[in-house]
Amino acid sequence: METIIGSLVVTAIGGISFLAYKHPVGYSRIHVPLVLTLMVIFICACVWDVSSIVTYEITSNFMTEAKADQASAAIKKLRLMSVWIFVCGGLLILYLQLLVFLPNILAENKPDNKIRRKRK
Length: 120
Known about the structure:
By secondary structure, the protein is mostly helical. The chain has one domain. The protein contains 5 helices and no strands. It is elongated, with a radius of gyration of 24 Å. The model has no long low-confidence stretch (mean pLDDT 84).
């Protein structure tokens, strides 16, 4: 399953990069909704993780030690965000921001069309 998801993510990033390179106006139309969607997903995942940890901390006072260990193991399985996912998500958002400036980065320096005459 991870292989399929990883392949789809790499393909999507390649497609978006191609769109930004070949059709910068089209990419500029989808850039803001795309970045906002990613940010909302990461914020929701962070809220999920924090809420599950806070819930465990509050309810652990009412559990026996064995049940608290079981609850802790269950919460670790439910975590959505890890350090690597958080870092990769941040790098992805930065990469999408870089793609906005891709036409300016790749623009060639156009020489002046003025003919300069040599002075004698």
